[in-house]
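Report of the visiting student (M.T.), summer placement. My assignment was to run the structure pipeline on a short list of targets and document each run. The first record concerns Protein NRT1/ PTR FAMILY 1.2-like.
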Amino acid sequence: MEDKMEESSDRREMRRSKKGGLITMPFIIGNESLEKVTGYAVVPNMILYLIKDYHMSVAKGTNILFYWQAATNFTPILAAFVADSYLGRFLIIGFASICSLLGMILLWLTAMVPESKPPTCDLLTQRCRSPTAAQMSLLISSFVLISIGAGGVRPCSLAFGADQLDQRDNPKNDRVLESFFGWYYASAAISVLIALTGIVYIQDHLGYRVGFGVSAILMLLSVLLFFIASPLYLKLNPSKSLLTGFLQVMVVAYKNRNLTFPLPDSTGSYHHRRDSNIVAPTHKLRFLNKACIIKNPGQDIASDGSASNPWSLCAVEQVEELKALIKVLPLWSTGIIMSINLSQNSFPVLQASSMDRHLTTKFQIPAGSYGMFNIISLALWVILYDRAILPMASKLKGKPVRFSVKLRMGIGLFLTCLAMAVSAIVENARRRKAIREGFLNNPHAVLNMSALWLVPQFCLNGLAEAFTAIGQTEFFYSELPKSMSSIAAALFGLGLAVANLLASVVVSIIDDITSRGGKESWVSSNINKGRIDSYYWVLTILSVINLLYYFVCAWAYGPCGDQPTKLTRARNGLRKEELANLGTKEMKGKA
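After the run finished, the structure tokens were exported:
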């Protein structure tokens, strides 16, 4: 009987070991890519859709889009917690994909049903009716569902894909993951490129009815593609609630704030999980260590070795997980300003629509498609970095070469400073030309100035994102425990969410301050009268300050994944032999 049970267990393990791997990548990346195509395709022209079809001002429409993007980037952190703690990544991705499909259908209905938006403006009186509460509710509902879909698919797909490949006992695991992250972002970039070219072109030339309809069809394909490969996936079970665990650590640490710390060489003073050789927490953020101090072994520890009351005693591993999250937050915050710069979608579209977008006499690039140059530069850098620069550097050095994540993040933050400075210079030149040509009061006029002048700022932003976004994602994933992998993937998205909210605040403040006394606002609906160039200079100054802040945070963080021994100790805590050595050193010091 025991032999049969062991045989059955072995068979289950063999079936489990056959799941995952490279065969699942087309389905996971395909689902993510199609979701990105549909999600990103509706963003560029949305400001024009809100202005023309919903009769909104530039400032109001821009703020609504910032809030929408904030929701899209904030939901990943909630989805990550639910995936890691309760439902698992597979269920979250499936549910989110269905939500995104429903959101696309509702958005398509706003274009198909005339009663779903305000009537056209009266040509004689030039009066335009505002949308009703029901019309806005339908529009906002589509935005909410799309945000839930994107929030569930994007962070969990990245972690779900890594689950299929991640083998931390493999000495080449770091290189495999680095390559996976790079190619994952490259495929995502290509998807966004398709969205910003093909789908936006359809919206411009065939209208929003066809454009939004195509997005809905592609999202349906995304849902089918993900579920059809369900038997192939390696589906890891969720661990217990990380959020609850974090709260328990903070509550218990506060309760035990008056406890004295055990001696460094004492054993059995800290509670740790069964079969774990980590017996003591690290000394960083030492006040949290009191959460895992055993006060009364008979009462605190259950017969199975777990804590009798998790709100009175936590495990060392719980404490170290919270420490790891707290430790990365300062470096995470350095990406917020760059994300504010990347979220400037509305103003470049308005700039491009006022410039000559013709490549030939018969073909012109849609105003919403210039963001493709951001994606092109990102994808090209990823390919060159992975297939040319690293192999060449390794060959010259005679050993494997990698640029550290902190170096890459720093380079990206420097490039975003340059991008905003270039944006300000180009906009200043565009505005002066509009005034010279007599278009000060005509924001819809097309200037005799090529829109290709906008390309350098998009390319610089693309390179900045390639360095910082990929670097931050890899940094979070390698520095945080594997149990927090979805949270690691969602942290960059959370930074985007905070950035979108702050960007809305910045626009509102600038609009309020610069329009006082009857003056024309910097972010006026008439971009020829406004001063978008000055707005860009404000972002440039903030970017420079943020770069200096990053240097301080990177120095304070210390070594990361480049030094495995220190990384292991910082992430996992002190092992038995390390604790004994520490106690011996302190005893010698006292002697």
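Confidence is low (pLDDT under 50) at residues 1-16, 562-572, 577-591. The first strand starts at residue 278 and ends at 280. I thank the supervising group for their guidance throughout the placement.
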